UniProtKB/TrEMBL annotation:
Name this polypeptide is given: Galectin
InterPro entries listed in its UniProt record: ConA-like_dom_sf, Galectin-like, Galectin_CRD
Entry keyword annotation includes Protein biosynthesis: no
PROSITE patterns for this protein: GALECTIN
CDD domains attached to this UniProt entry: GLECT (cd00070)
């Protein structure tokens, strides 16, 4: 487990030592810029993006997807309630790996499950964060 805190420059990239496996947790915390359009958190497997989390403020949506061989799959956008991210506010995203899916909470509230589209979880070994935020903490 590695922990980085305060004023982390973007784009941020780090390895996920040992890849994903059941019960592994990744935490990403920061503050959303007051003029934010979007930001993204990507879990990568080589050049593929196993999990793309992309809050889009102009669309009032949290888009999730997977990119394999430079081709995006079908987007998922549904949420149980309203948009969990707000411009000018801090956030904490918790991504917990489970056998069938990733379980994602924002600020302590479960938002969605994302079914694995890349089955070899151990090969998902990079985290990238970029966009209109100030990143303050990453734990992998």
């Amino acid at each position: 487990m590695s922990l980085l805190t305060t004023g982390i420059p973007l784009p941020f990239r780090t390895s996920i030592s040992g890849g994903l496996y059941p019960n592994r947790i990744i935490l990403v915390s920061g503050s959303i810029l007051p003029t934010a359009n979007r930001f993204e958190i990507n879990l990568k497997c080589g050049n593929d993006i196993a999990f793309h989390l992309n809050p889009r403020f102009c669309e009032n949506a949290v888009v999730r997807n997977t990119q394999i061989n430079r081709s995006w799959g079908s987007e998922e956008r549904g949420l149980p309630g309203c948009m969990p991210f707000a411009r000018g506010q801090s956030f904490m995203v918790c991504i917990r790996c489970d056998v069938p899916c990733l379980k994602v909470t924002v600020n302590g509230c479960h938002q969605f499950d994302y079914k694995h589209r890349i089955r070899n979880l151990l090969s998902i070994n990079q985290l990238e964060v970029s966009g209109d935020i100030q990143l303050t903490q990453v734990q992998v």
